Amino acid sequence: MGRIFFYAVLVAAILSLAGCGGTDVVPRDNSGTKVGVAMPAQQLLRWNRDGAYLETELRGRDFDVDIMFADNDAEKQKTQLEQMIGEGCKVLVIAAVDGDVLRPVIERAQQAGVTVIAYDRLLMGTDAVDYYATFDSYAVGRMQAQTIVDKLGLAEGKQGTLEIAAGPMEDSNAKVLYAGAMDVLKPYIDKGQLTIRSGQRSQEQCATPGWATLMAKERMAGLLKQYETGSLDAVLAANDSIALGVLAALKDAGYGSAARPMPVLTGQDADLPNVQALITGEQTMSVFKDTRLLALETAKMVEAIAGKQQPEINDTQNFMNGKKVVPAHVLKGTLVDASNYKSVLVDSGYYSTVDIDGTASRALGVK
Hints:
Blueprint: H1 2-22, E1 34-39, H2 45-60, E2 64-69, H3 74-86, E3 91-94, H4 99-111, E4 115-119, E5 131-135, H5 137-152, E6 160-165, H6 172-190, E7 194-195, H7 203-206, H8 213-223, E8 234-237, H9 240-252, E9 264-265, H10 272-280, E10 286-288, H11 291-306, E11 328-331, E12 334-336, H12 341-346, H13 353-357
Parallel strand pairs: 1-2, 1-3, 3-4, 4-5, 5-11, 6-7, 6-8, 8-9
Antiparallel strand pairs: 10-12
Helix pairs in contact: 1-2, 2-11, 3-4, 5-6, 8-9
């Protein structure tokens, strides 16, 4: 109930800003056109915001919106999509829990004449996905890795220790993210400048199912046994929910003191608890992906589809899903740390100072 209330408040807050230029509304009658929005998990702040922004942008264009959250349960999301198709949705916007599980229902949508937009997670192995709206995950991975290179002085020949907390194998974005990071870090690992004491280096070995904070914490607690002597210098954490789990394990192991300082810790999404960790120095960086813009561009795509027009696409080469190159609209992320969080996150209106200074968001962390 708490998550539902939080989501309702978030939507109301966004709607209150819409009249002040918060949305880019195209005057066209879309009433009667139903759009299904399938989000992976309401318990993650990232997807709460995406869902709220999408709902606001689409309703602002007079679409009938059916939005559902799947609690990171792929079978539940499959059932939700089947329901959306049965209820006459003409467009589906899908942030998949597991694209492999969804493939049959996506192909059923194609047969029913429904347009499918993959939202920030590419749907793999099917030609039934029509478009993709996303951020450049490869560039995000490179930003995370370059932070480690810079902070540890690897380019100057210094050495350090590293552990990797990757995203889930079932998420295509996690694979691209890992590839971007390893393209930067692999030369230093191969030369022995970066040592991974656990020996866990492949994405499969380092994966965090469901991007789950608790699983990241439990795995990191085990890895830290390798560092009872010496110290861990850096953790490549794929996103902020994983970084929270890593951070909790580090604190439990005594990191964060003068004798044992926090390692370099990466993330992405600029979730509120992580922004607070940036400010306190417990997390080194995150990558801000302005989901307001992603929701806006996705709504524009839906608008064009409803009007039987070609959506605005800026990438027709890089997103091969195993069956087709999916035309995409790609946005860039912004590195955020303690030095620029205010200009990037507060001055842009994404968060308020009350959001960042308040205590409510701290409850989302892992104790």
